[in-house]
Model the fold of this input.
Amino acid sequence: MNKKEKYRELLQQVEGLIADEHLEVSVLANVSAAIKETMGFFWVGFYLVHNGELVLGPFQGSPACYHIKKGRGVCGTAWAEGKTMVVKDVEEFPGHIACSHLSRSEIVVPLFDNKGVMRSELDIDHTEVGTFDEVDKEELEKICEAVARQLYQRD
Ligand code: SME
Done:
């Protein structure tokens, strides 16, 4: 299976997994597990906007930092700019927050509510430089849109 095909199956799996559940912690836990299992990335998880900063949410992988301020690191920059960040080589990203020295590339995708306010972020790290490209960006944005519709856009 090529990457696009894997993502197609993953999106279907995620849509099935989240269809009947609305509790944020549970949905995000299963979505991070599904992505990690299907795609084999090193670290997959969510940061949640809470009390004006990003806090660590459900994830799969090694322990990570709890708090990230707006504008700091890749996650904080994605929040400040309100858009997906694809980082080929984290060592070349100014201010990158290294939770694990094994992480070499990263993608962060924001999830918005129906007022356009960012509520959480999907953060994925991998051990090789240049893991994430336009296909990952497009497909992970589709997954995040489905999750955001279920969790944050219901009223
Ligand atoms: N590397 C991220 C921090 C989160 S961890 O990778 C899990 C950053 O620079 O925002």
